[in-house]
């Protein structure tokens, strides 16, 4: 009887791939679990940080709202005084009354509604172009007035009024002492229609010629006639319809004549000395 051959098998050798696989799987699972744990921890920290930021923002906004509400209902928010600033000839006390701002009113209301204040003042005073409202020391209002530039002045029976760049007249009657000498004075143009015509002509003339005009007289023999008293003492006569095209001759004639000369551009283009009566009439003597 033949003996069966017995093969010796090492259990470790047979189990080695399995054990190795199990070990590798455990390591892999450990690394995966570690990564998941780290990710969860990071996500938790991010959520916590975002929550704290939102909470801080809510608290911050709430504090600001409470402080603002506390200021608004406190006497500190009531208008304490009004200051008018800006280059203007308007009566300060009347301007303050025209704003209709009372001591019991809230400063914030006028900061948010400065257009309403501007409209009120612009309706009463044609000089006002726009305003700026500022606050000083919590409850002191400063109203800075921006006026339309002055084109000239018109003489009336009550005094002088500004002629503004938009064609309107100033609301105030001012004395001669407040008339700027570099601006022309319009005399004899009490009617709105005649003033508009002469203003249209004046604005169409070259700027260097405008700067030389001291006075525009509407006291003429004919409605179509215009008379300019120049700052150098000369007098220019012209026709409203043709003066713009003839004004180019003025500088040529001016260099050839002396002071107190009449330069007539109405029909042709000639000059002569002013008579004593004309000098008195134009206030040159």
UniProtKB/TrEMBL annotation:
Location of the POTRA domain: 77-148
Transmembrane stretches, start-end: 55-73
InterPro entries in the record: DivIB (IPR026580), FtsQ_DivIB (IPR050487), POTRA (IPR034746)
Its membrane topology: Single-pass type II membrane protein
GO BP term (any one): cell division
Origin: domain of life: Bacteria
Keywords: Cell cycle, Cell division, Cell membrane, Membrane, Transmembrane, Transmembrane helix
Described purpose of this protein according to its UniProt entry: Cell division protein that may be involved in stabilizing or promoting the assembly of the division complex.
Descriptive protein name: Cell division protein DivIB
Protein species of origin: Lactobacillus melliventris
